[in-house]
Write the structure tokens for this entry.
Amino acid sequence: MEKRTLVTLLLALFIALLGVGIIAPIIPVYAMDLGATGVTLGLMVAAFSISQGVLQPVVGNLSDRRGRKRFLVAGLSIYAVVGLTYTLATSVEHLILIRLFHGVGSTMIAPIAMAYVADLAPRRQEGKYMGMLNIALFAGFAGGPVLGGVFRDVIGVNSAFYAMSALTVASLGLILALLPPDRSSHKTRSNAGLLTTLKRILSNTRVLGILLPRIGTMIVMVPTLAFLPILMDRLMGATGIEIGIVVSARTIVNAGLQAPFGRIADRHNKVALILIGSLIISACVSVLPSATNFLQLVWLSGFMGVGEALVWPTLGALAVEEGHRYGQGSMMGVFNMAMSAGVLIGSLVAGSFMDLFGLEYVFYIVAIVLAVSAVAGGLLIARRDPTREEGLFTDSNDS
């Protein structure tokens, strides 16, 4: 039963993220065609993160108490509707509102799926299971941009949004038909309220150390997803397919390395892995503005994927360990709230820097931010934290 649950969940996530990946490289250019500036483009990205960040701890805590499947169904339903609404946008303001609604749906998909998988993960195999989850997420997202480029170049922009909706409906069908009612990883569900849970989680120094590089890696994500397509389109005259290949190269490498690097995260020093991976990403991002041709961008994107493949399952494994104390839904809600905070900060800072100093400086500043956040986070994770012993759950495996 657990194997069936895992396979169903991962397949549904792959299909849903394939749809999201299809529109990822199209939205920035689509927004520019509607008159977006750097700041309004940043606001469009920020709108997604605001709704996502505010709601993730709430939804995560509720899923610990009331079950997870209902939230997955709701999130996928919202995604299906959102894909259609993009085609109706006639201004940047419309896109900002749509992205706000899109963020609500996202709140109920990835964090809940992470909590689902964390419930299934045996002790000391957290990295392996988070690696499998990330394979589904990144493989779907990796295949999407190339398909999105084909839709844009061959059929038209709106066809990509229709494809997203269709794929989301297919994913929803899998969840409804094959995913059994979820179980909590604990004998009883948590009765702790949201504020109590958040206070205990955020008082843990080790958790703060996990969240810092999570924020840093997401700050980097903004220019490499939202602004790199604009750079390629404006300076290199890149086609939709070329933009899709560059975006996908990073995610394909990331997905391909999740399984082996997830096993490495279970066996080796996690702080060292986070530092190495973050420095690889920072170095690649700082060089992106100096790339002069399509092939160089593909290589840099691929090496960024290597760094992310080191960081993502390692941070995920650390988050699962803390989830045993506080509830996986609550912990993953906070973990992904940090992701949203990173995207929000990155979008606003990147948009402002683009308008004030030029597109190139966006990449330099976020590379520095990631390096600093990784070092600071590593120091906090390595510290012994007395609050680490206090959790919301008692678990016989903790002893």
The mean pLDDT is 84. Residues 294-326 form the longest helix (33 residues). Residues 262 and 290 are 32 Å apart (CA to CA). The chain has one domain: 2-179+193-394.
